[in-house]
Amino acid sequence: MKILVRNLARTTQEHEIRALFAAHGTIQSCTLVMDTVLGTSKGFGFVEMPNPGEARVAIKALNETNVAGKKIRVKKAEDKAQVREA
Q1: Model-level pTM?
Q2: What's the pLDDT tens digit per position in 42-66?
Q3: Ramachandran area for residue 73 (φ above 0: left; ψ -120 to 50: alpha; else beta)
């Protein structure tokens, strides 16, 4: 399951997000979205967890938790095809 993580501090690094989610299960991938011009984080990223049950537990446990002074928002990522159709 692909998970969207928003409202991250610009200083938060990929390994920190990976550690948060690893406490709840197996992580397939973790990617912070970066500003290509500045080379800094845009404040959001994606985590993929192969086990949907573990992903749901992680979403519930981590949504609205405080990370680096910011209250992060965590939810299931919407499929791009579904977003375009809406």
Answers
A1: 0.89
A2: 999 999 999 999 999 999 999 999 9
A3: beta
